[in-house]
Amino acid sequence: MTDLTERQVSFIDNFVELNDAAAAYEKAGYAADPSNANKLVSRLSTEINAQLQTKMALSTGLALSTLEAVMRDEATAPRDKINAANSWLDRTGVARSSTVGVKDERPTQRWKPVRRIIDGRDTIVMNDDPLFLLPKKRTDETDVADIHDSREGDWDIGDRETYLYLQSKGFFN
After folding, report:
1. Is the separation of the CB atoms in 44 and 8 below 8 Å?
2. Which residues of 23-57 are buried (b: 16+ CB within 10 A; e: fewer)?
3. pLDDT in tens, 147-166
4. Model's pTM, two decimal places?
């Protein structure tokens, strides 16, 4: 703390207790002036915050006891119990993460697109994963000339529907 007058120390104590700048200003012995009271709060904010932190630290035991009572009370809603537990963990220094770190150790590999017939439609598939189906840009039916065009990916003849479709179009002749 910096060198403070008796009135300033009294003002800080009263402000922390009352949480009212004008009342603390008068109680500290200053003439009533709300404007000057607010200016004094700004000027002494560092000291006021330090005093508030000390007051809060002294109440930590009570706060933790209250949180514990909320968590143990059978009548407390599960949501409130979770909130109390999170507050308890925050105050005890146990970090709560809002994200989960996932380490992906799969080999990095670029998958080659393959063409498949899925539900009667010519489709480009990446990584054998049905979640990544990319429909062809054209909406017209695949014709025989397109069947031999491998610029858009090789046909996946291991897929039964694709194999039967290609066989019906004479792809293997």
Report:
1. yes
2. bbbbbbebeeeeeebeebbeebeebbeebeeeeee
3. 555 444 577 787 888 888 88
4. 0.42
